[in-house]
């Protein structure tokens, strides 16, 4: 009996100690505590999985012979005239998910009902091929979709690319690089064409994409988020890195640790660098960026920095920027309390704002 009481007192002491440590953490890191709480209490959205009868579906459509991973799902609504096409690029840290990811499904299930054709693109993950394979795949998919627009019934001159998280990086890079960059993957039928096909798009929609890998950790340090909180929030990455020499999924995909890269190498990985290099064409790109303030996977700073790059057309390797005059074709919207890949980005009410944006773009 005495032994049991001693054990009980010991457990009580441990619990009290943990509570004191938790209270101390909350006092020392109130902003981080708020972010964690907002993530833990975020609502979940129920997806409408009812059958779609408003058009034609082409699932598992290969766009390249390079890999069995190079396919896409295409949804074309019934319409009298060719409609705009939204190209969807899924996230997953370059190591997980596919074109049927939860976020990609939210997007195409909603937008095809609004009269937009949707192409959800699959690409090679880091386990199969590292940088720049996924980006080359995405750009090959864009060219394939443009070359086959008449066959499937959408408008080849009205392309918008959307991506979330790692897909936000890929979508942004595809939108700001020219046709001579990252074009190492040929699409099916490309060698039979008399003229080259462009991968340029009219608009970019970036949901909380990681744009500068070398600033990913320092961004959270500047926000006062302890590394242990980041590690716990992104624990899922560990299973994909087991057996590799890397501690970060983006390093695994790049095949090198960004902290060991030269300034020239870091520039090659950054969309902001290509914005400056291709400014003559990029400045006419229509851009919409969304990010949540409670994101503990990709810091909100990443989107703020990208936004400023689209305004100024300049690249600063250290991530600094000067406030630039706003432009009507570039917009950044932040969402208070939204975490990474938060379901609230994908409610009908939220996506209706994207529809309005696209309707105005293609009016």
Which percent band covers the strand fraction?
15-25%
Q: Ranges with pLDDT <50 over ≥5 residues?
A: none
In what order do the strands lie side by side in the largest sheet?
1-2-4-3-5-6-7-8
Topology pattern, helix = H, strand = E? HHEEEHEHHEHEHHHHHHHEHEH
Basic shape: globular
Termini separation (Å)?
80 Å
Structure class: alpha/beta
Radius of gyration from CA coordinates:
22 Å
Number of strands: 8
| Mean pLDDT rating | 93
Give the proportion of residues in helices: 40-55%
Helix count from the secondary structure assignment? 15
How would you characterize the largest beta sheet? 8 strands, mixed
Description:
The chain has helices at residues 2-28, 30-40, 102-111, 133-147, 149-152, 166-176, 216-223, 227-233, 237-241, 249-254, 263-269, 271-277, 279-282, 300-312, 348-361, and strands spanning 55-62, 71-77, 83-89, 117-121, 154-164, 203-207, 286-292, 330-335. The chain is of the alpha/beta class and 363 residues long. The protein has an 8-stranded mixed beta sheet with strand order 1-2-4-3-5-6-7-8, sandwiched between helices. Helix 1 (2-28) crosses helix 2, helix 4 crosses helix 6 and helix 12 packs parallel to helix 14.
SSE inventory with pairings:
Elements: H1 2-28, H2 30-40, E1 55-62, E2 71-77, E3 83-89, H3 102-111, E4 117-121, H4 133-147, H5 149-152, E5 154-164, H6 166-176, E6 203-207, H7 216-223, H8 227-233, H9 237-241, H10 249-254, H11 263-269, H12 271-277, H13 279-282, E7 286-292, H14 300-312, E8 330-335, H15 348-361
Helix pairs in contact: 1-2, 4-6, 12-14
């Amino acid at each position: 009996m005495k032994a049991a009481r001693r054990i009980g007192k010991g457990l009580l002491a441990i619990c009290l100690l943990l509570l004191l440590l938790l209270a101390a953490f909350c006092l020392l890191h109130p902003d981080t505590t708020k972010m964690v709480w907002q993530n833990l209490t975020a609502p979940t959205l129920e997806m409408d999985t009812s059958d779609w009868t408003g058009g034609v579906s082409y699932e598992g459509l290969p766009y390249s012979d390079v890999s069995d991973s190079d396919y896409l799902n295409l949804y074309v609504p019934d319409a009298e005239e060719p409609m705009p096409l939204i190209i969807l690029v899924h996230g997953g840290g370059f190591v997980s998910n596919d074109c049927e990811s939860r976020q990609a499904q939210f997007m195409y299930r909603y937008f095809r009902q609004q009269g937009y054709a949707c192409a959800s693109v699959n690409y090679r993950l880091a386990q199969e091929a590292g940088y720049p394979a996924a980006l080359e795949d995405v750009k090959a998919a864009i060219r394939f979709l443009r070359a086959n627009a008449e066959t499937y019934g959408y408008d080849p001159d009205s392309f918008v690319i959307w991506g979330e998280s790692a897909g936000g990086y890929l979508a942004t890079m595809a939108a700001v690089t020219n046709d001579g960059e990252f074009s190492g993957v040929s699409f099916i039928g490309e060698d039979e064409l008399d003229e080259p096909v462009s991968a340029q798009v009219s608009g970019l929609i970036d949901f909380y994409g990681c744009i500068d890998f070398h600033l990913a950790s320092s961004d959270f340090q500047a926000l006062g988020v302890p590394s242990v909180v980041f590690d716990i929030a992104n624990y899922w990455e560990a299973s994909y890195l087991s057996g590799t020499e890397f501690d970060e999924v983006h390093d695994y995909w790049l095949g090198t640790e960004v902290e060991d890269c030269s300034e020239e190498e870091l520039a090659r990985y950054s969309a902001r660098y290509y914005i400056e290099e291709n400014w003559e064409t990029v400045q006419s790109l229509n851009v919409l960026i969304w990010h949540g303030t409670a994101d503990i996977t990709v810091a909100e700073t990443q989107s703020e920095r990208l936004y400023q790059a689209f305004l100024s057309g300049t690249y600063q390797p250290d991530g600094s920027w000067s406030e630039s005059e706003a432009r009507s074709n570039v917009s950044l919207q932040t969402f208070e309390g939204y975490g990474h890949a938060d379901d609230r980005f994908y409610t009908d009410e939220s996506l209706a704002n994207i529809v309005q944006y696209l309707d105005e773009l293609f009016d």
